[in-house]
Structures are given as C-alpha cells and as structure tokens.
Amino acid sequence: MKNTVILGSGGWGTAVALAAHRCGIDVTVWSAFQDEIDRIVSTRENPLLEGIKLPEDMKFTSDINCVKDIDMCIIAVPSFAVDDVAGKLAGLISPCSIIVSISKGFDKNSCERLSEVIERHLPDNPIVVLSGPSHAEEVARAIPTALVSASNNEAAAVAVRECMSTDKLRIYSSQDIVGVELGGSIKNIIALAAGMCDGMGFGDNTKAALLTRGLREIARLGVAMGARKDTFAGLSGMGDLIVTCTSMHSRNRRCGILIGEGTPVSQALAQIGTVEGYHASALVNRLAQKYGVSMPICESCYKVCYENGDPNAEMIKLMARPNTHEDEGASWWSVYGEEE
C-alpha cells in the first residue's frame, strides 16, 4: 500500500490522508475543484482543519489520472457525489487497486449503499468500508481512535487494517460490510434527532432513550438488509452513534440543535453545510417501507425534515406510542428468525 489516492479534499478526506501519511504511505489528495487545491497547496492547511499544517510531501491535484497505478484509492466525497466519482474511476484504475469507502450515506436515486454504487462501476476491484467513531478534527490531530475495516474480501479488509494502523489509530477487521456501512449511515439521522432534543432543551434522560431506541432501529433495518446483528453493538454501530450524537464536532447534531431551537430546516442546512442525516432520512424512510421495518424515530426525523413537522409535536407522538415489551419487534438479537 505504498501509493494511495484520497478522492475528496474535505475535512474527513484530509484527516484520513494525514493518518495514512503517518503510516509512511505516499499520499495524493484529489479534488474536482482546482481552487480548493490551489488554496490548500499555498497555505499547506485545510480550512476545515484549522491550525493543522499539512506535510510538504503530501501531494494535491485535480487530475483524476492520479488514480492510475496505485495500491489503494480512498473515496471521501459526500454521498451524493460517490456515483459520479466512482464512474470516473472506471477504465482508469487498476482492478488490483483496493477501493476504500469512507463516505457515509446512500445513493440519492437508488437507495443503494455507497459500496454497492462503487461496485456497480468497479465490479473487479476489492471494496472495503472503513467506518467507526471518528471526528475528522481528532483523527487529524492523532487523538487515539478505533475504526472497523469491513469487506466481503477478507484479505482486502485485513490489508487496510494492517497498512493504516498506528499507535494512535487502531483498526479492527470485519466481513460484515453491510452492517458496518449501515451503522455509519443511519446514525446520522439519530444524531440529527439528538440535536433537535438538545435544541428543545431536553435532558440526559431523553438523549439516553433516543440513542438506545435509535440503535434498535438501526439494527432492525440492518438485519432486514442482511447485516449481522452483533455488528451494531460494535464500533461502527454503538460507537459511531455515541460520538455523533454527543459531540459538537457533529454537523448532524449541530443542525438538529438549530432545528430544535426553531430555525427553519432550510436555514439550518444552509448554515451548517453538508448534513448527511438530512439526506439519509428520506432514503431510510423508503428502505423502512421496502423492508417492512418499524423505525419511529427515523420516521419522525423525516417528517420534520421533509413534511414541515414540528420537533416537539413529534416527540409527543413518540412518547405517546402504545406501551409494549422492550424487546417487542425491536431486539437486534431476534429481529428476523430465531435466536442463534
């Protein structure tokens, strides 16, 4: 893994580029926007990672031909851009190159997981999803972090684990690419809802309930889509949910706070920028209907985001739902079929 290209010069892509560079990997960061490249090269700093100087030997380019003859390609663009970027790679990148997705979300048209979008364009390449509780600001500063490298190709997952792990970045491997990817994508919706609760002035009890029941919803849909049930109790499930719902680094949570305080959704989105939970809520709503899975928290978040729902009214509805056993239709240990 001596030569690696990161597609996407945002905060997360740059943070992972720094992590790879610390492993002795020759790193090139690509962006479709030449003005972004020029600014980063001239200042040796990404404005989204203020105060962190980028190594002089880290390369930046807007030439997509940089993906030729590389060992690993890390896709770090927003979810809506993955289809286009993966399409650009077809015919350029070697089928031997490992493709690593660190983007979170779903395809806006097909509801496909992003690794499925990539595989559609690059069916011969090994595809890995790298996910877990990891704010870009902390990874960039080498604050101890743990992630999961998941792939149907176990050798590829292990290769990414071994080449990217350091004393500050611990990576575990998994073959449950579905579960790891879904945990990292759906938690953004729960984080948006958690922010709304904060904005409405609710307390720790509310957030604890929201995270716990939200994790049940994530696991419920995940198992329906073929994920392993225990994956959601790990780093890419519970771990990522905790960090995204509790930190002010989280754009999803910050956006939710504004909405909970009464800011119109459109204004909150404009103020925060890319909020994957907003986009994911519409797509997960479709997936829940497709698989016949009950996801009341995600559904309430969808109504606030897309149907002008009132956050407080949605909370009242959630609390007024019929009483039931805690595991009724919700346990990730026995959602589909018998317990193992």
The averaged pLDDT comes out at: 95
Proportion in helices = 40-55%
Specify the number of helices.
14
Radius of gyration from the alpha-carbon trace, in angstroms:
20 Å
Number of domains: 2
Query: Could you give the distance between the termini?
Result: 38 Å
CATH topology of the largest domain: Rossmann fold
- CATH class call of the largest domain: Alpha Beta
Report on the structure:
With 340 residues, this protein is an alpha/beta fold. The chain has two domains: 3-175, 3-Layer(aba) Sandwich (Rossmann fold); 186-319, N-(1-d-carboxylethyl)-l-norvaline Dehydrogenase, domain 2 (Orthogonal Bundle). It has 14 helices and eight strands. The chain has helices at residues 11-22, 34-43, 82-89, 114-121, 136-140, 154-164, 177-199, 204-224, 235-246, 251-260, 265-272, 276-291, 296-306, 311-319, and strands at 3-7, 26-30, 59-61, 72-75, 98-101, 127-131, 145-150, 169-174. The chain has an eight-stranded mixed sheet, sandwiched between helices. α12 (276-291) packs across α13. The protein is globular, with a radius of gyration of 20 Å. 51% of the residues are buried. Residues 330-340 have low confidence and may be disordered.
